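Hi P.,

Sorry for the delay on this. The queue was packed all week, but I finally got your sequence through. Input first:
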Amino acid sequence: MILVLLHEIAKTGESIVQSAVDLSLKLRKKIGILYFVDSENKTEETKEEIKKTFSLDEAGIFVQTGKLADLSVFCESKEASFLLMQLTENKTREIQAQLNACRSLRIPYILFKKSFGELALNKVLVPVTFLEEEVEKAQFASAFGRFYGSEITLLQANDYGSKAAVTVEKMKNLFEKFNLNYKIEKAKTDSFKLEGEAVQKAEKEHFGIVLLSASREYGLDDIFFGPKERKLVKDSPFPILLVNPRGDLYALCD
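Then the structure:
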């Protein structure tokens, strides 16, 4: 299921809903709309308002009492495979609240601003650092390549070690199995600054989306100053797809 979490029922949500509809058609998945209310008395009228506002007769519409903390459990219960989350305001507090709700997700997710148009997936940028879990992004990039015909660019970190190069080679092998359109570029910066370079490159060269790995765990700096992805999401003029590292697949230690 392609799931959309709405916070406002208004025409400003048309881009996120239409993006989800397009994803559901291209990826051959069902679409679902989730909306949390503060009282069960509002569920039916809210469902009708969502249907009327976005013309969603065929979608699964889930209106229920709850809060952001329930999001991960809901996604697992509905076997969601992709999550689009509506950002009503591009402010630090709201972004962090949604990031917190996504920490345990095993699916990719996008925080979708009001200023975004419909997802444009013709050009996809995938920065690759020395972290071994970066390879997880390949499956999502390949899905865009297969079902959207996306041009995929792998931006390899300019590191002294070979870890990023090894991961790029693994991604390359996957893309070649599906005969995808891809290219590999060497970044100017190392793994620690790569994602910032990637966002700048994406804006300059008109990429539709960037695939980033979320923070492994929040350290003291992340708690006080915010995780890297919060600033990137807040400053980016285009969608960023975030993928959480899988602790059950990798030894997440420094």
